[in-house]
Amino acid sequence: MLFNTPLFFGFLVVTLILFYVIPRRGRTAFLVLTSYVFYAAWSFRFVPLLIGLTLTDYSAGRFLGAIRDKKVRHAIVMASVVINLGFLGVFKYYNFVAVNLAALLGKSAGAFSLSIVLPLGISFHTFQSISYIVDVYRGDQAPIRNVLDYALFISFFPQLVAGPIVRAEVFFRDLFKWRRPQATEVLQ
């Protein structure tokens, strides 16, 4: 679903209307659901990947909040970074490396290549996750306790494709202290 299509415009209008109609306590879950619908509209095959990476980094953040041993905390951060960059590397750079390796070995360009489709927003959610984990590790961000809040941070559809990458403290401040905009703010 591209941002400049009538389908996206309809999706956005319905999302905004329902967001204001449903009770406040259900809005985060609703936005996570709409973000996953948006993601699945591009390719539902990658929804499990998004869920898996979300749960991995959510858990890493919770562990970082509970563990005080510096070596263990460092290992958690490193594991999270390696997992995130590993997925990014496979999806984004595997074929580049495979083609060059084939050329070095005198093989055909497709000898080691795979038919890999790049997941939507993989760079965005990789670096958004890493920034969160590093902030929690440094003590700049408290671990997020609600998995839906963290899932929204990673999958929020208006920024999933184009960004920008937002620091966790800014995103969660805006999420937790959100207020309905005044008419004058909307019309400006």
Description:
The two termini are 28 Å apart. This protein has one domain (44-187). The longest helix has 35 residues, at 70-104. Helix content is 70%, strand content 0%. Helix 2 packs across helix 6, helix 3 runs antiparallel to helix 4 (70-104) and helix 4 (70-104) packs antiparallel against helix 5 (122-138). The protein has 188 residues and is mainly α.
Largest sheet: none
Specify Rg, calculated over alpha carbons: 19 Å
Q: Tally the helices: what do you get?
A: 9
Please, how many domains? 1
- Structural class category: mainly alpha
Overall geometry: flat
What key attributes describe this structure?
about 190 residues; mainly alpha; 9 helices; about 70% helix
Summary?
The protein has helices at 6-21, 27-43, 47-66, 70-104, 122-138, 147-155, 157-160, 168-176, 183-187.
Fold blueprint:
Blueprint: H1 6-21, H2 27-43, H3 47-66, H4 70-104, H5 122-138, H6 147-155, H7 157-160, H8 168-176, H9 183-187
Helix pairs in contact: 2-6, 3-4, 3-5, 3-6, 4-5
